[in-house]
Design goal:
about 375 residues, alpha/beta, Quinone Oxidoreductase, Chain A, domain 1, 2 domains, 7-stranded mixed β-sheet, about 25% helix, binds NADP nicotinamide-adenine-dinucleotide phosphate
């Protein structure tokens, strides 16, 4: 089980909090903010006092966290809910969290205050982070958040915060899957299953850009979309003969197999692999497939897995370069974004957990609660 943190540390939140709503639908009222320095001003946040279902999420007041010398205090403009945020909140993904624990991993915002050891950042800079809310760090679902300077990146000019925050997690995940764990090589065959989803979209685009021959599976309605991203062949995953079609589409075998659907049918995956091929697992937290050990070792293949939660700050910074390039050129975007007020965080967790967000990303905007301008 994740452990509660000890005494107040970097970005620590004193325990006093004022609940406004508990797992309830969004409210729109807001108290006038007192005219005090940002380090002591209370803020609205979505937090839990213990791990559990979405109903544990309280939307209420917490003190603004205090940045340390190498930290940056950020005004959150947009945050989002990823499947992993529900895993952390429920305890399915075990990671240390301090209570009261602000949920949420990703943010786009504006710098309010930068410590002396955070010289790359100045008040007013537009920035983003995709590694809050786990491993002892407080989360992003608040009006303000403290981010360590080595986990914070500048947002390219002119990029819409809601559009950006929706892409951060899937795009960084796709980069890590291909380049940190998949060792994608130019001219190789990469099979992306679930290619039209959030992560799949970026996997196809990046693998094709890196020179791979991308074979993809997606719903028939998404075939053109996936082809336009750079896939050489797109097969309907619902087709009865999809296995045979995949074998025909990959005559020399698959060098890298990535399944975003979480089905993780290792029998088929290993059968499709070329000699020395690799399966990278990163979805399907509850999957328990059978492993075809014989064919796997006889072909000298590898199965590995990863979660972005374990990526180092250096790996995330490298991925951030790719994410910023994608944000700046705008070619790869999340297909559908729904914006909600921050006070709807519990509802958003319910939707993500219940699978009600298929095909779209939920973006939470603290500015909508304040009734103010977003961005
Ligand atoms: N390990 C990590 O660090 C990490 C990071 C980010 C995400 N993830 C995980 O990655 C997974 C994908 O996330 P996402 O945001 O990309 O989800 P998503 O947008 O829902 O994409 C999943 C895709 O899989 C497709 N699909 C469903 N059943 C399929 C099947 N039998 N064969 C092939 N494709 C199928 C879906 O198509 P339809 O639309 O037709 O249903 C959808 O396009 C999630 O499980 C998430 O938790 C892991």
């Amino acid at each position: 089980m994740p452990a509660a943190g000890g005494g107040p540390g970097r970005g620590a939140l004193p325990r006093a909090s004022v609940p406004v709503t508990s797992g309830a639908r969004p409210g729109r009222s807001r108290r006038a903010a007192p005219a005090v320095p940002p380090t002591v001003e209370p803020m609205r946040a979505a937090f839990v006092e213990r791990l559990g279902p979405p109903e544990e999420i309280v939307y209420g007041e917490l003190p603004t966290p205090r940045p340390g010398p190498t930290d940056v205090l950020v005004e959150v403009i947009a945050t989002t809910v990823n499947p992993v945020d529900a895993f952390v909140r429920s305890g399915l993904f075990a990671t240390p969290v301090p209570f009261p624990f602000v949920v949420g991993r990703d943010l786009v915002g504006r710098v309010l205050q930068a410590g002396p050891g955070a010289a790359d950042f100045s008040p007013g800079d537009m920035v983003w982070c995709n590694s809050l809310g786990h491993d002892g760090r407080q989360g992003a679902a608040a009006e303000r958040a403290v981010v360590a300077a080595d986990r914070l990146y500048h947002l390219p000019p002119g990029v819409d915060p809601a559009t950006a925050v929706a892409l951060l997690h899937p795009a960084a995940t796709a980069h890590l899957a291909l380049f940190a764990h998949g060792r994608a090589a130019l001219g190789r065959t990469v099979l992306v299953e679930g290619a039209a989803g959030n992560v799949g979209t970026v996997l196809v685009a990046l693998a094709a850009e890196a020179g791979a021959r991308v074979v993809a599976t997606a719903a028939a309605r998404d075939a053109e979309y996936v082809r336009a991203l750079g896939a050489a062949e797109v097969l309907d995953y619902r087709a009865e003969d999809v296995g045979e079609r995949l074998r025909a589409a990959c005559p020399d075998g698959v060098d890298l197999h990535l399944d975003t659907s979480g089905r993780n049918d290792l029998g088929t995956s290993v059968d499709l692999l070329a000699r020395g091929g690799r399966v990278v697992l990163f979805a399907g937290a509850r999957a328990r497939p059978e492993l075809p050990a014989g064919p796997l070792y006889m072909k000298g293949c590898t199965i590995t897995g990863f979660v972005i939660s374990h990526a180092t700050a250096a790996q995330l910074a490298e991925a951030a370069g790719t994410v910023n390039r994608l944000l700046a050129d705008g070619r790869v975007r999340t297909r559908s974004v729904e914006t909600l007020p921050l006070s709807a965080t519990a509802e958003a967790h319910r939707m993500v957990e219940g699978g009600a967000t298929r095909g779209r990303r939920l973006v939470l905007l603290p500015g909508l609660d304040a009734g103010g301008v977003v961005g």
